[in-house]
Automatic annotation (TrEMBL):
One Pfam assignment: Radical_SAM
GO molecular function, one term: 4 iron, 4 sulfur cluster binding
Organism of this sequence: Novosphingobium fluoreni
Reactions accelerated catalytically: 6-carboxy-5,6,7,8-tetrahydropterin + H(+) = 7-carboxy-7-carbaguanine + NH4(+)
Cofactor remark from the record: Binds 1 [4Fe-4S] cluster. The cluster is coordinated with 3 cysteines and an exchangeable S-adenosyl-L-methionine.
E.C. no: 4.3.99.3
Name of the protein this chain belongs to: 7-carboxy-7-deazaguanine synthase
Entries under PROSITE patterns matching the protein: RADICAL_SAM
Subunit structure: Homodimer.
Upper taxonomic lineage: Bacteria, Pseudomonadati, Pseudomonadota, Alphaproteobacteria, Sphingomonadales
Residue positions binding substrate: L18, Q19, G20, R33, T94
Described function: Catalyzes the complex heterocyclic radical-mediated conversion of 6-carboxy-5,6,7,8-tetrahydropterin (CPH4) to 7-carboxy-7-deazaguanine (CDG), a step common to the biosynthetic pathways of all 7-deazapurine-containing compounds.
A biological-process GO annotation: tRNA queuosine(34) biosynthetic process
Length: 243
């Protein structure tokens, strides 16, 4: 069984859209959003995947979600059928933290031969051996200090080293202010991450916030030879589920 987030109570968050971020920005894709996360970013825009009632980890919205309304369990066969019913042949598995459900995810992907698979991860969890060979691309987003996560939980050296040496992994760093660059450049140096695999993305949940941040973020990318990524889905659909 897989534990998924929901768009509305009982309806799993499985949908077709354009990839909004990173290396595959603009590509038609099928998305599956899994529930649960081992980190707690204070600006997370999918807190409904982890900040359930009784969870006091800090979040700037201070909202607590009803687990039964925002989480649903489905068989791998059911999820595969729903994915197959959508047209894009590129699958993006996001969360939450998808790699927490590695064995079930491996069983799902085995039912989807020919599908190009991307997994979005915070970079702290190793892929299950049965899963790893089925994945074409890892979108790794290590969480910087401004996320509010303790560094010993969010930046696991052995995992960062493994991602840096895996050519399937691209790195996306969420930037809240220009001073975050010191930490990005330190991680890039310490783990010898090639510049063409590093994307910078502004923190923001509205088109106006992104537009304001993107002006100075673009210059940082130019100054340091790193890649820029926007959040296309926010511009197209706003901060909404299932988009």
């Amino acid at each position: 069984m897989l534990t998924l987030a929901t768009t509305t109570p009982g309806e799993p968050e499985i949908f077709a859209s354009l990839q909004g971020e990173g290396l595959s920005l603009g590509r038609p894709s099928t998305f599956v959003r899994l529930s649960r996360c081992n980190l707690a970013c204070q600006w997370c825009d999918t807190a409904y995947t982890w900040r359930f009632e009784g969870d006091n980890r800090p979040h700037r919205d201070a909202l607590a979600f009803d687990r039964t309304q925002n989480q649903v369990a489905l068989s791998e066969e059911d999820v595969a059928a729903r994915i197959t019913a959508l047209s894009p042949d590129r699958l993006v598995v996001t969360g939450g933290e998808p790699l927490l459900q590695g064995p079930a995810l491996a069983r799902l992907l085995a039912l989807l031969p020919g599908m190009h698979v991307e997994i979005e991860t915070n970079g702290t969890v190793a892929p299950h051996p049965a899963l790893d060979g089925l994945v074409h691309q890892y979108n790794v987003s290590p969480k910087l200090a401004h996320s509010g996560n303790p560094a010993d939980l969010a930046l696991v050296p052995e995992r960062l080293q493994a991602w840096a040496t895996d050519p399937r992994a691209v790195f996306k760093f969420v930037i809240a202010q220009a001073t975050d660059m010191a930490q990005v450049l330190g991680l890039q140096h310490d783990y010898a991450i090639p510049a063409d695999r590093v994307f910078l993305m502004a923190e923001g949940r509205t088109p106006a916030e992104l537009a304001a941040h993107n002006r100075w973020l673009a210059q940082l990318c130019l100054d340091h030879g790193l890649r820029f990524t926007d959040r296309l889905h926010i511009h197209l659909y706003g901060d909404t589920r299932g988009t």
